[in-house]
Design a protein that fits this description.
Elements: E1 5-10, H1 15-27, E2 32-36, H2 44-50, H3 54-58, E3 61-63, H4 66-69, E4 73-79, E5 90-91, H5 93-105, E6 109-114, H6 123-126, E7 131-133, H7 146-163, H8 185-201, H9 213-222, H10 228-245
Parallel strand pairs: 1-2, 1-6, 2-3, 4-6, 4-7, 5-7
The chain binds S-adenosyl-L-homocysteine.
S-adenosyl-L-homocysteine binds at residues 79-82, 114-115, 117-121, 133-135, 137, 142-144, 146, 149.
Length: 255
């Protein structure tokens, strides 16, 4: 079950932190590490700091974009040391552990995303996450070392897992039973691109003045737990909207 959980490090500068993160993960029973454009990897410094977690480093996946790192995921948590401009659904580390374990126990893929040492995650990257996680810290000195932040979250995942606070099935929680599988991040990205194109085509979104429209829509759909057949309906609506905008005839099943 813990294998459904991946730790994603974006743009890591210091290879020592990659090793430190691998060690923190292995201590807590997590195994899947994904690196998005690390500055240096593999590296002897990473090996040294991993001190025994070399199996995690050996199976670490290196990818070119966050989008690629999130392929197949239906829950994404992004960590941030600071408040960002657009308020987003927040979880504390304890709640994150419970949420992650709940989803992973249902066989769903989950990602915990961590940012760059100096700049964290960009707004764009944070907007790809369903929830933001802030580790309560001294407001005057709020950034933890990257590997330390991975340690805190991994520990909370393990704590939730050990506590067995996992509903046996969806009925056991206060959520209605799910009819179909949740759409994955890559499927949602395809939808967001389609939605954006359509909104531009019908003149609702001005590419010169996008404001926070796409971010707000990502936040809306991100908290909706969209299932795959529901996503097909949304895509179908967009396709028909685009046709209508081009003045093409409607597709009606009863005609
Ligand atoms: N100066 C950066 C700090 C980056 S610290 C910023 O202001 O965002 C590197 C990474 O460690 C962060 O991107 C985040 O993933 C994690 N991290 C550090 N401190 C954290 C905190 N208090 N809460 C949540 N994540 C934290």
């Amino acid at each position: 079950m813990l294998q459904n959980i991946r730790v994603v490090l974006v743009g890591t500068t210091h290879p020592g932190n990659i090793g430190g993160a691998a060690r923190a993960m292995k201590n807590m029973g997590l195994t899947r590490l994904v690196l998005v454009e690390p500055r240096v990897f593999p590296s002897p410094e990473a090996d040294a700091r991993a001190s025994g977690a070399d199996d995690i480093l050996a199976s670490t996946q290196v990818v070119a974009s966050l989008e690629e790192a999130l392929t197949g995921c239906s829950l994404v948590l992004g960590t941030s040391a600071r408040d960002r401009s657009l308020p987003w659904p927040m979880l504390n580390p304890r709640e994150s552990g419970v949420k992650v374990v709940e989803q992973a126990a249902q066989g769903l893929e989950v990602a915990l995303v961590f940012g760059r040492e100096h700049a964290g995650l960009t707004n764009d990257e944070l907007q790809r996450c369903h929830f933001h996680v802030h580790i309560a810290s001294n407001p005057d000195f709020s950034s933890l070392n990257l590997a330390a932040a991975v340690q805190v979250l991994s520990y909370e995942v393990r704590t939730a897992w050990l506590a067995g606070q996992v509903p046996v099935n969806a009925q056991a929680s206060n959520q209605p039973a799910r009819e179909s599988e949740l759409a994955t991040m890559d499927e949602m990205e395809g939808f967001y691109a389609h939605l954006e194109q359509t909104l531009v085509a019908i003149g609702f979104l001005d590419p010169e003045k996008p404001r926070h429209l796409m971010a707000r829509l990502r936040r809306l759909y991100g908290r909706s737990e969209v299932e795959r057949p529901e996503l097909s309906i949304l895509r179908g609506i967009l396709t028909e909207t685009q046709k209508a905008a081009r003045g093409e005839p409607h597709k009606r099943k009863d005609q």
